[in-house]
Write a structure and sequence with these properties.
mainly alpha, 434 Repressor (Amino-terminal Domain), globular, Ribosome-binding protein aMBF1 (Putative translation factor), Lambda_DNA-bd_dom_sf
Length: about 100
């Protein structure tokens, strides 16, 4: 068994543990939100410190957020959206069943 097979097996075992799938989903969402904020910031040519100042945050908080290291609250997302002159949209939609 190669290293890649070992990793895949370990990943499957970890995801089968209670709460692991939920934690994985939370990490994915945090990463996607951070990536979106970083891309918008970079499109404007801003540093993390500039965005932080506009959003009332510290540069290190922006860095952690952009790296997906924190799951943000709605108020933090609102401050970032306001600073980026973006609209924050939070939506719940029903899942489609595979019937």
């Amino acid at each position: 068994m190669g290293e890649r097979d070992d990793w895949a097996e370990l990943r499957e075992r970890r995801l089968a543990e209670p709460g692991a799938a939920e934690a994985y989903d939370a990490a994915r969402i945090a990463y996607e939100l951070g990536k979106a904020v970083r891309e918008m910031r970079e499109q404007r040519g801003w540093t993390q410190a500039e965005l932080a100042g506009l959003a009332g945050m510290t540069q290190s908080a922006v860095a952690r957020f952009e790296a997906g290291g924190t799951v943000p609250t709605i108020p933090v997302l609102e401050r970032l959206a306001h600073a980026l002159e973006a609209e924050l949209v939070v939506r719940l939609t029903p899942r489609t069943s595979a019937a």
